[in-house]
Design goal:
Largest sheet: 4 strands, antiparallel
Bound molecules: iron/sulfur cluster
Number of helices: 8
Strand order of the largest sheet: 1-2-4-3
Helix content: 25-40%
Structural class: alpha+beta
Number of domains: 1
Shape: globular
Number of strands: 4
Low-confidence stretches: none
Radius of gyration: 17 Å
Order of helices and strands: HEHHHEHHHEHE
Distance between the termini: 41 Å
Strand content: 15-25%
Oligomer: single chain
């Protein structure tokens, strides 16, 4: 399988929605729940975009009036859904569909972040450097490239996707080598 083949396996569909931060906080912020999940992740305290933080992450929500949610549905083709893949192939597909779309969006949203004087919330850990400096207990090398995820500061991404975009979350069936109909990517700008 190569990159050209993977490109034909999906379509990204983007939808945006803006809420006041107050409404978002009331409906979808629960730091206790997200921290519990973060503590079970290998990146916990190993990446500067991830908890544990030396500040209260909940304060970020109060700094801004609005949140623009950017939801990307990675819709796989019937051919992709009906094919059985091995672990390596699934890893390659995820890297070049879900993560590729995230990495394409980051510079676009960084521009918007600047225009709005806001703060970009990405998805997952910060992957800007090959190895995060935090692993060696060093300072972040590129602070302007380090973006917290929605979850890292308490946002319930799955509930947001279901509640605001009316989308049901779907997962990869690793055991049987099957892709779901779609995967979901949620990013945001606080401003
Ligand atoms: S920019 Fe580099 S050092 Fe900073 S959080 Fe991202 S990966 Fe870590």
């Amino acid at each position: 399988m190569n990159l050209e083949e993977v490109k034909k396996l999906y379509t990204p569909i983007q939808t945006t929605k803006t809420l006041t931060t107050e409404e978002y906080k009331e409906k979808y912020v629960n730091l206790e729940v997200t921290l519990k999940a973060c503590r079970e992740c290998p990146n916990y305290s190993q990446n500067w975009a991830c908890p544990e933080f030396n500040y209260n992450p909940l304060e970020k929500w109060d700094k801004y009036a609005n949140i623009e949610l950017i939801y990307t549905k990675i819709k796989y083709t019937p051919k992709a859904i009906n094919t059985t893949y091995n672990m390596e192939e699934i890893g390659f597909i995820i890297e070049n569909t879900l993560f590729l779309e995230r990495n394409k969006l980051i510079p676009q949203l960084e521009e918007k972040e600047k225009q709005l004087n806001g703060e970009l919330l990405s998805a997952g850990y910060c992957g800007y450097c090959e190895k995060c400096a935090r692993i060696e207990k060093e300072k972040c090398k590129y602070p302007d490239k380090c973006h917290n995820s929605i979850e890292s500061i308490g946002g319930l991404a799955i509930d947001t996707i279901e509640g605001e975009f009316n989308e049901e979350m779907k997962w990869i069936d690793m055991e049987n080598g099957k892709l779901p109909e779609n995967l979901s990517l949620l990013m945001a700008i606080l401003y």
